[in-house]
Design a protein that fits this description.
Blueprint lengths: L13 E5 L3 H12 L3 E5 L5 H7 L5 E3 L11 E6 L4 H14 L2 E4 L12 E5 L2 E5 L6 H14 L3 H19 L3 H12 L2 H7 L3 H17 L8 E6 L10 H7 L4 E4 L5 H4 L7 E4 L2 E2 L2 E2 L3 H13 L3 E6 L9 H10 L3 E5 L4 H9 L11 E6 L11 H4 L4 E6 L5 H10 L7 E6 L7 E6 L3 H7 L6 E5 L6 H4 L5
Parallel strand pairs: 1-2, 1-4, 2-3, 4-5, 8-13, 8-14, 9-10, 9-13, 15-16
Antiparallel strand pairs: 6-7, 11-12, 16-19, 17-18, 17-19
């Protein structure tokens, strides 16, 4: 994060804009709408600022810029077309301890201004740190068309009840549940339709119910969320919604920062990661932990790489939850096989190559690898091996010793869908040596079958 995003209260406080033109007028308009006491220093007001003066009150000072202009000022904006004037603003601001923004000059600015989607009191600020203004404008345009104006009405309504609800529902978790029900239920729908009286009446009745029967707001639950193979863009909308509701999150080493950063900021985070032969937290302990936390009334987010039900031990976890009467939801994710294959440009099935696909685990138990080789070595079939990196040589040897053609195409995908993805292709005879030479590390997925040969033509379109 290149900049600290903050919202500054400038109401009734002095702000300064130096210069004329469209940019100066835009900054001035924002400052005036935020309630600041604005001073504009310019030889004269151009047409943009003159039009602004017809709608808002501000002080125009045509005198030469000096240190007195910065006295009592909280922020200043250098918007002059003359670079010498902007340099003077920077020097005087620094001497006065005032933060300054210089138009189109990130290096000289103490802060930068984001694009703003205004649904007062709800504000959405968008910034690329100055690196891509076009992208920011595009995102702002999208938000403007997808964020209803009524959201501001909802935020204002909630603000009126905030102190009262805090006093009536002192428990933080129960209070958060109440707010979530309010902003996503019938109260919000009434406000969206401008039915204020109905919204207020329903709010009063639901508040009374919440105080009298807090049980509805205190039940714990577990969200078993599949996060896909790594790219946060592959998360489902439902997964994103529940990630923002959870009170505590259990995650392992396959969950990248890009996904963890999407979890609610104040949620407690517990690392339960597993390495080969080094389980930081045993599987049984994870189940016990989820049961305990949900029993305390918390909403527990269990993040699983890929899909929870594809070699993710999700079935074991919900079995334990069910046996203990714990409510749960399972949110499927893009499986590692689907995601990694797609990003590598290798279709798992293809009319001319494979009419079936088999998923197996290459995880060795007690030093041995038990696979049904006869079932795996079939014509027109793709085999995807999860967790097989450490036993890659054993896997390829097993195929060959059980009659597979040594020239059968094979690939291994490291960090599939993530930054730094690597794909090594070869055959059953060569893949293990090639992976070793390339120093492939986990997480890695193995694909065996003639579909691998399609990568040369299709990887151009893959990410």
């Amino acid at each position: 994060m290149d900049h600290l995003p903050i919202f500054m209260n400038v109401e009734g406080r002095r702000t300064l804009v130096v210069g004329n033109g469209v940019i100066a007028a835009r900054k001035a308009d924002l400052l005036l709408r935020a309630g600041s006491e604005l001073v504009i220093v310019a030889p004269e007001l151009d047409s943009e600022l003159f039009r602004l003066s017809k709608k808002h009150d501000f002080r125009h000072d045509s005198s030469e810029l000096c240190s007195d202009h910065f006295s009592g000022c909280v922020v200043a904006f250098a918007c002059s077309a003359d670079n010498a004037v902007n340099r003077a603003v920077c020097e005087l601001a620094a001497a006065s301890g005032v933060m300054v923004n210089v138009a189109d000059n990130k290096q000289k600015s103490d802060f930068i201004m984001p694009a703003v989607v205004d649904r007062t009191p709800l504000l959405i600020a968008i910034s690329s740190g100055g690196s891509s203004p076009l992208l920011v404008r595009m995102l702002k345009s999208r938000f403007e068309t997808t964020i209803p104006a009524a959201y501001g009405r909802l935020a204002e309504f909630a603000g009126r009840y905030r102190d009262r609800i805090k006093a009536m529902i002192p428990d933080l978790n129960r209070r958060r549940r109440f707010w979530e029900l309010m902003v996503s239920g019938p109260i919000a729908e009434h406000l969206y339709s401008s039915q204020l009286e109905q919204a207020e009446s329903l709010m009063e009745s639901q508040l009374i119910e919440a105080v009298e029967d807090g049980g509805k707001l205190s039940g714990g639950e577990v969200y078993l969320v599949g996060t896909g193979p790594g790219d946060p863009d592959l998360l489902s909308f439902r997964a994103m919604r529940l990630m923002q509701q959870a009170d505590v999150v259990l995650y392992d080493r396959l969950i990248g920062d890009g996904i963890l950063n999407l979890v609610r900021r104040d949620a407690e985070r517990i690392y339960v990661g597993k390495l080969k032969n080094n389980h930081t937290v045993a599987q049984d302990e994870i189940g016990t932990m989820m049961i305990r936390l949900a029993g305390e009334g918390k909403r527990v987010l269990r993040l699983k790489g890929g899909d929870p039900f594809v070699f993710g031990r999700g079935g074991e976890e919900i079995e334990a939850l069910s046996d203990n009467g714990i409510a749960f939801q399972v949110i499927p994710g893009v499986s590692a096989a689907n995601g990694c294959a797609a990003y590598a440009g290798i279709p798992l099935t293809h009319r001319d190559h494979a009419q079936s696909c088999v998923f197996v685990t290459g995880h060795q138990k007690d030093g041995g690898l038990e696979l049904n080789w006869n079932a795996l070595i079939q014509p027109g079939q793709t085999v995807v091996v999860y967790m097989g990196l450490s036993s890659l040589a054993t896997i390829t040897t097993g195929f060959l010793e059980n009659g597979a053609d040594s020239k059968t195409p094979a690939a291994i995908i490291e960090n599939g869908t993530r930054t730094g993805q690597r794909v090594i292709t070869g055959t059953l005879a060569s893949l293990a040596d090639r992976a070793s030479a390339a120093n492939i590390v986990s997480p890695a997925l193995i694909i065996i079958g003639s579909v691998v040969t399609l990568r040369d033509r299709l990887s151009w379109f893959a990410k």
